[in-house]
Amino acid sequence: MSGTTRRYLRPAAALAAAAALALTGCTADSGSSDGQTGFISDPKGGLDTAPVASRQTAPAISGTTLHGDKAALADYRGKIVVLNVWGSWCNPCRAEAKGLQEVWSKYRDQDVQFLGINTRDPDVNNAVRFEDSFGITYPSLYDPDGTEILKFPKGSLNPQSIPTTIVVDRQGRLAARSMRPISAEDLEKLLQPVLAEPK
């Protein structure tokens, strides 16, 4: 296979995976032998938490934000990070946006950082307009082809639908996940136990 063919195949594969991600809403199999196991699913569905001993290290998420700055998950080691995977085209993302900003405003001075991952937006201006419309003040990486999302290992508390919200603990491990539009109340339920853990 030529180098030119490889260059075109990788973006195409990433785009196909991102498209599939948007269409799936399945929960992770806690019995999987691939990656993280032993996490606990909320009986109401869509919320998962991992005991400290079962947590897997989050992948090396990094890139350029919607406003052209560089950002990486590793920049926030020592803080709890709330990752939110979203797209401006996504109605459920609109439903949760104000609640995310509300929780960010409440906890940003308590060693908590929010970081969005914007995906499947071919024009960054659409994503910027979304943030302006909902008053979002935390940064978001621009990941139109889903490259950063694909870094999450299979079987971990990984994004399997859009929107997905993931809580990363102070040691950079995957602690909790919501695979549905999350309310401010439910996000606090995921965040507060991690916040209460020893530093």
TrEMBL record:
Q: Which GO terms describe its molecular function?
A: antioxidant activity; oxidoreductase activity
Q: What GO biological process terms does the UniProt entry carry, in alphabetical order?
A: cytochrome complex assembly
What residues does the Thioredoxin domain cover?
A: 52-196
Q: Where is this region: Disordered?
A: 29-51
Where is the secretion signal located? Answer: 1-28
InterPro entries referenced in this protein's UniProt entry, alphabetically: AhpC/TSA (IPR000866), Thioredoxin-like_sf (IPR036249), Thioredoxin_domain (IPR013766), Thioredoxin_ResA/DsbE_sf (IPR050553)
Could you tell me which Pfam families the record lists for this protein? AhpC-TSA
Q: Which UniProt keywords apply?
A: Cytochrome c-type biogenesis, Disulfide bond, Redox-active center, Signal, Signal-anchor, Transmembrane
- Main localisation: other
GO CC annotations?
Answer: cell envelope
List the SUPFAM superfamilies.
Thioredoxin-like
Q: Mark out the compositionally biased spans (Polar residues).
A: 29-39
Instruction: Report the locations given in the UniProt record.
Output: Cell envelope
Q: What PANTHER family does the database record attribute to this sequence?
A: THIOL:DISULFIDE INTERCHANGE PROTEIN DSBE (PTHR42852:SF6)
Protein's name according to its UniProt entry: TlpA disulfide reductase family protein
**Species this protein is from:** Kitasatospora sp. CMC57
